[in-house]
Amino acid sequence: MVFLTVEKTRFEMVKKRHSKTYVDAKAEGMVDSQLISLWDAVLKSENYFSSSGCAGRILLLGLPKNASKKEAYFHRKFHRKVLLREIIAGVEENEKGELWLKQEPFILHIGCENISGARELLKVMRRAGIKRGGIMVAEPGKFIIECQGTQSLSLPVKQGKTQIIGKEALSELVKEANKKLEKNYVSLKKFEKELDDIL
Fold first, then answer.
1. Which of 113, 121, 173, 182 could, after both became Cys, cross-link 145 (CB 3.0–4.6 A)?
2. Residue 71 reports pLDDT greater than 90
3. What gap in Å lies between CA 191 and CA 104, rounded to an integer?
4. CA distance 84 to 157
């Protein structure tokens, strides 16, 4: 009984801390707009909290010559669909090392108090058709579930000063990245709808 009380107290403290972080980030415009309705619903729930999340993005990732992946940097980053001219401008500006065009899916971290709540989240993921994810943290009063979409694209577009993808091909790649990002948003909304049943 004492253990359960400690577990509950820890969960309430962790939820309060993460909830404040979300509210502050939202006020500062630091939360992806596609996540706000989802995170607002989680905020109001008694049994879950939002730990962190990204609704998906398109980016140009730079990798300095002879550098490791740890030294990669964001040359351009968009948490929305992009225009071809935005990508072309970013590609033309970069002349160091490798430059990659990437579209990355949403990734969410949702917390709950116990294994029962974690199992419910995993069931929600399956109903929503989400195949990537699982329990990342399992401690008394703090379980964190990671949930990730599958829509992605990644390929090099420039090596030093040499553009290895022409503008016509780049145009098609940008269209594909935008299409995948839109599918990503549809999947995210489906997850939000399924999650609403347990909040």
1. 121
2. no
3. 17
4. 13
* Arithmetic mean of pLDDT over the chain: 92
CA 2 to chain centre: 37
SS3 131: coil
Q: What is the pLDDT of residue 15?
A: 93
Residue burial 88-106, b: 16+ Cβ < 10 Å; e: rest: eebbeebeebbbbbbbbbb
pLDDT of residue 8: 74
Asked if pLDDT for residue 152 goes beyond 80, the answer is yes
Q: Spell out the domains of the chain, with CATH numbers in brackets.
A: 2-195 (3.30.1960.10)
Quick one: residue 36, left, alpha or beta (phi over 0 = left, psi -120 to 50 = alpha)? alpha
pLDDT (average), residues 137-163: 93
Give the SS3 label for residue 80.
Answer: coil
Say if residues 110 and 15 touch (Cβ distance below 8 Å): no
Q: What is the per-residue pLDDT for 1?
A: 43
Backbone φ and ψ for 112, nearest 5 degrees, come out as: -150, 175
